[in-house]
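Duplicate of #3305? Posting structure anyway:
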């Protein structure tokens, strides 16, 4: 009878250890699942940031292209028009606009006030 009791106690101890191991494994699994969920959330945020950066880069590239076109058109126009006409009034040559801008300085190595055009450019930032 004593042998049966010893076997029973050993079996009960083994079952207890297995239950504790299962509980520990369950806790670690839950912790890893929570970590994976946090990682997925972080990756979604990074993905959103990357998309915003790509969109901003695309807008910047488009603005740079349009600015180079404006510069090219302005240079061609400056070469065609007599200096007196250039000093009277300048037109903003931004695509899709015709904002008049008064010339506040000299044209040719010079400063101009292009407030309406600058407002248009600022809207792209």
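Output from current build:
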């Amino acid at each position: 009878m004593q042998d049966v009791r010893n076997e029973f106690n050993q079996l009960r101890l083994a079952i207890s250890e297995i239950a504790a191991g299962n509980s520990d494994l369950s806790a670690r699994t839950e912790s890893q699942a929570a970590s994976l969920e946090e990682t997925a959330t972080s990756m979604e945020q990074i993905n959103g940031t990357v998309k915003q950066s790509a969109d901003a880069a695309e807008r910047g590239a488009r603005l740079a292209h349009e600015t180079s076109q404006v510069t090219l058109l302005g240079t061609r126009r400056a070469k065609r028009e007599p200096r007196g006409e250039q000093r009277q009034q300048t037109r903003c040559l931004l695509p899709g606009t015709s904002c008049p801008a008064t010339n506040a300085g000299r044209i040719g190595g010079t400063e101009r006030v292009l407030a309406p055009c600058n407002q248009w450019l600022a809207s792209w930032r």
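Confirmed duplicate; merging threads. The CA atoms of residues 64 and 79 lie 23 Å apart. DSSP finds three helices and two strands in the chain.
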